[in-house]
Amino acid sequence: MLELENVWKSYRVGALGSKRLTAVRDVSFAIAPGEVLSVVGESGSGKTTIGKMVLQLISVTNGSIRLNGEDITAARHSRRKAYYRRVQGVFQDPFSSYNPIFKADRVLETVRESFFPESKRSEWDGKVERTLLSVGLDPGAVLRKYPHQLSGGQLQRMLIARALLLDIEVLVADEIISMLDASTRIDVLNLLGGLKQRGLGVLFITHDLSLANYISERVIIMRHGAVVEMGATGKVFGDPRHPYSRNLLASVPQLHRKWSDAPTELEALEPDGDRDIAPPPLREVDEDHWAAIGP
Ligand SMILES: Nc1ncnc2c1ncn2[C@@H]1O[C@H](COP(=O)(O)OP(=O)(O)OP(=O)(O)O)[C@@H](O)[C@H]1O
Ligand SMILES: [Mg+2]
Known about the structure:
Blueprint: E1 2-13, E2 19-31, E3 36-41, H1 47-54, E4 62-67, E5 70-71, H2 77-84, E6 87-90, H3 106-115, H4 121-134, H5 139-142, H6 152-165, E7 170-174, H7 182-197, E8 201-205, H8 209-215, E9 218-223, E10 226-232, H9 233-238, H10 243-250, E11 283-286, E12 289-291
Parallel strand pairs: 3-8, 3-9, 6-7, 7-8
Antiparallel strand pairs: 1-2, 1-4, 4-5, 9-10, 10-12, 11-12
The structure holds adenosine-5'-triphosphate and magnesium ion.
């Protein structure tokens, strides 16, 4: 469904954009319908940059992104609208997606204005109510409220509802759980499970490895803009092959172990080399399990 092939992104940085920073290096992966693919890795490894490229918020420096075979990197502006009917994003900080001077449900109304201007008011309102209920929101409690009158979890769910009003195929979720409290997290996670059953593909960007383990079929581990390991979640997390993946997994606190018990020994990693050259290739180490390690 959604495929990235040898995707690179460099940003211009420094005074007057005199230098370049390669944020994403030669990344390839695919998401199938009904699949959650998690992207994990250290801060600055390029996760959000990938999400933004998929959402066409920033350009792709090199490589291609295809939706159902159609290359979207070459798409003209006029094709954007059709694309956003099929691909939408929800971000970490739900407050930033709302304008504080407008009522929160304006984000739903703008979907009607842009995509369904011909729809009858009563039919549209019915659709909004059903969609809000489907994401666990009480329409009476959230409609006609200002963003500051709603909780972070409610605002986030309203953004998911917004995406669903469009019958999307792919949802990009960037750290959407991190700012929610534990019980709201479970609700939003269950909601994502429901989306999966409806056949949506989800690109789930997170710092939280246990969350990635819980929610995703497949996982990608990134370091310095490149993929170091990817494949079926059970294989990557159960039998990590790259030293970086092993370090990352060793740093997850375990409920049954006290912090003071056995300090974790981390493996030495190769230093961050030249970001402008292609990263080490991925090698298939098992069925649906690749790692950037030598033979
Ligand atoms: N607009 C920009 N201009 C220049 N550099 C940028 C820009 N956005 C991101 N970067 C750089 O690109 C790299 C990757 O950033 P990105 O936001 O994708 O990381 P991330 O993996 O999402 O990190 P985090 O886990 O902290 O959210 C970082 O080095 C960052 O400083
Ligand atoms: Mg990020």
